[in-house]
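Page 42, continued from yesterday. The earlier attempt failed because a stray header line got pasted into the input along with the sequence. Redoing it now with the clean sequence only.
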Amino acid sequence: MVFFSTAIFLCKAQCSSTSEFSNFASCTDLDVLNSALYWNYNISSNEAEIAFRQSGIYNYSTWIAWAINHTSIGMIGAQAFVAHPRSDGRLIAYTSSITSRETILEKGKLSFPVYGVSAIYANNSITIFATLMLNSRTSMVNHVWQRGPMSMDNVPSFHSHSKDNLRSYGTLNFLSGKTGTRGAERFMVMKKIHGSLNVIGWGIMLPLGVVIARYIKVFKTTDSEWFYIHVICQSLGYIVGVMGWTTGLNLGVQLSGFKQKAHGYIGFSLFCLATTQICLFFRPKELKYRKYWNIIHICIGYGTIILSIVNVFMGINILKQGKKWKEAYISILALLGTVAVLLEIGTACYLFFSRKNKNLGTTDGARPYNS
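This time it went through. Structure tokens are written below.
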């Protein structure tokens, strides 16, 4: 379109300026990355003519992209319009369907009709132009925008993990012109809730329950006291962990195409193992069966703890929460480990002197580990 080629020279620094792209009926400043979007929307044909601009590009070796995502929030599943310089210095624009986080923005067809894709670099800004047909006759879409460096091989490299780069998505209504981040903000809150519940449930309360089971029963107490404290701790950990697991399943539905198979498989295994432990609440009274029950219970218990710790670290890396979450969880594990070591030493000494007193006929009733 001729107006696409000429509109860029009419723009000013902000979308709110009075002489913005005069051939576009609507425009909005996007929240981050010095970006703005201009469009005309034909309600009868559900066709949108768009111009996406990113300013402040002083290094010409930069790629930009704007995308619509009909299936979820974020990058995976996005139908993108990309622009970047070629090795000969010319700017190219094309479409790319994003199916994984490891994408290098290869050229490809989109899930909806597109034509007139072009780009221009002027006044330290890159602008992408295109005309597209919206799916399902809807004017509301999820959209995402991004920028990143070019590699030495003139291939788009992965973008930065700065705060702005991780916040560059939201919702857009082509008809009303309203944009928002409510869906994106709700999604970020859900991710934090998912991580927090799993850290507390699987990653803290289950290991704490093991410490209780191993050490409290050694000291002078009744069987039911330490056992029910252990059961309460593990049950609460299970409930909180399952809440975190179901939240993760919901996130997986929203992030269609976002594949973290190992994390998901471990999460499902944790649910199955922890559920089995709950079912083992009723201990056999006969000693000959109790021995086998103890072996199964201990093996499943320690297996669950190991998997839970591994999956918590995997989840922290996936959510990219930075060093604070990881350092905080490492500190909690270190504290539990220190307590366990001190209790191990304390109970060993306690049992030693208890046996010694027993030999002298003054036993204080210490309980062995495996009772």
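Notes: Residues 1-14 have pLDDT under 50 and may be disordered.
Reminder to self: strip header lines before submitting.
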